[in-house]
Amino acid sequence: MSRARTLLGLAAASAAVIALAACSSGAPAASESAGDDEYGLVTAGTLTVATEGTYRPFSFHEDGSGDLVGYDVEIAEAVAEKLGLEVEFQETQWDAIFAGLEAGRFDVIANQVSINPEREEQYLFSEPYTVSRGVIVVNDGDTSISSFDDLAGKTTAQSLTSNWYELATESGANVEAVEGWAQAVSLLQQGRVDATINDELTFLDYVNTTPDAAIEVAAETDETSESAFAFTKDKADLVAAIDEAIAELREEGVLAELGEKYFGADVSQ
After folding, report:
1. For the segment 82-124, what is each residue's pLDDT rounded down to a tens digit?
2. In angstroms, how far is the first alpha carbon of the chain from the final one?
3. Distance CA 264, CA 247 (A)
4. Domain span at residue 143?
5. What is the pLDDT of residue 37?
6. Does position 267 have pLDDT exceeding 70, yes or no?
7. 88 Cβ contact partners less than 8 Å away, ≥ 6 residues apart
8. Residue 113: inside a domain, yes or no?
């Protein structure tokens, strides 16, 4: 045997001894340290979260500091802390957010994703952390409307492309077309319409940031809309862990506190 082959053999043996020593001492094998983890995360040890960053008050940049904040953002941060994970947000336009999830760019979407049968066929959802209803909004002191039946013959301000427009017309209301909530509430306060129907969260956000607004809820729908974290179908273990974290945050009052902060009310149930 040549001296070179002898040296190579000794080197290989030494490497094997070192590898065995590392394994026996509890050091992780290469495959274990290369990103594998129990949740199949995009980046081991980090929860990568997709959100718009332009959807106030759920996900937006704070005036002045420019920090990414919001109801969904803070819930995602609290969940990651419960799981012992870092959190990284990837701001993505809504039109591309589900495609990015399916492409494996992030682990979860936190952007007020409402649960519906069509989405449940394609994705997994956590337990809801936001629950809302449709509400009829009127000026303070208006007692002429106390139910959806009372909208018959009244005038409401609605966007023609919204489901609230359909509800208004089904209730017998005459509809004044508007571009959105801001225009609708302006017409209401000017007395040019009798009411407007919208999502409860929109109303709560408005009165929370405009406390002198003299408007109130006259009636609400029986049906609720529930929003949750969305995942691809292969993330069942991550969903289970996040569900447990959400349950703890609910029990500890964290969800209620965040609701009060952003909406002036607990919107988690």
Report:
1. 999 999 999 999 999 999 999 999 999 999 999 999 999 999 9
2. 78
3. 21
4. 132-224
5. 72
6. yes
7. 43, 46, 47, 48, 49
8. yes
194 vs 157: CA distance, rounded Å:
8
Quick check: 162 pLDDT over 50? yes
Element (H, E) at 244: helix 236-251
Residue with tokens 């936190």: 110
Answer yes or no: is 268 within a domain: no
Tokens of 7: 């040296």
- Note the pLDDT of residue 237: 97
CA distance 82 to 118: 30
207 and 242 fall within a common domain: no
Distance CA 197, CA 189 (A): 14
Q: In the predicted model, is pLDDT for residue 225 greater than 80?
A: yes
Give the DSSP H/E element, type plus range, for residue 168: helix 163-170
228 CB-near residues (< 8 Å, 6+ apart):
113, 115, 125, 126, 127, 128, 129, 130
Question: In this structure, is residue 169 part of a structural domain?
Answer: yes
Number of other CB atoms surrounding residue 233 within 10 Å: 11
pLDDT for res 38: 84
